[in-house]
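It is worth pausing here to work through a concrete case rather than discussing structure prediction in the abstract. The textbook approach is simple: state the sequence, then state the predicted structure, then interpret. We follow exactly that order.
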Amino acid sequence: MSLNEEVELLKNIPLFAKIEPSKLKLLAFTSERLNYADGQVLFSQGDTGDAAYIIIDGTASVLIGTGNGTVEVAQLSKGDVVGEIAILCDVPRTATVQAKESLTTLKINKEAFFRLVTDFPQIAVEIMRELAGRLEQTNIQLRAALSDNGN
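Step two, the predicted structure:
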């Protein structure tokens, strides 16, 4: 994938949709393209958060370790962003992300991510929307799990 193709991909992600193409080109240029094989881990729950990842191609599982084993809580695919919670909140990774098939990502380091948020406050709004949506999904799953246990 060329730099211009990466810019086109970024433009189609709501988080980056309102950023001017020259800034997206800089982001794509300063990001690291990484490839993962099926089953390979991008990062593990509890790791220090040093970067966010944009899924360019393939799918990945978001896994959370519990007292009863590992649970898949979400699946990621092209255009999804993952890993931003750990760098935004300066907390350890909240989940493990593992490739479900051949996976290609753009890795955006913490400094570049914060520069984007500072330069483009709209990104912060989009991140809040995304995180609020994830929280709502988690609440739905929690309510369902609690009502299943009550039967």
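Step three, interpretation. The mean pLDDT is 87. Residues 121-149 form the longest helix (29 residues).
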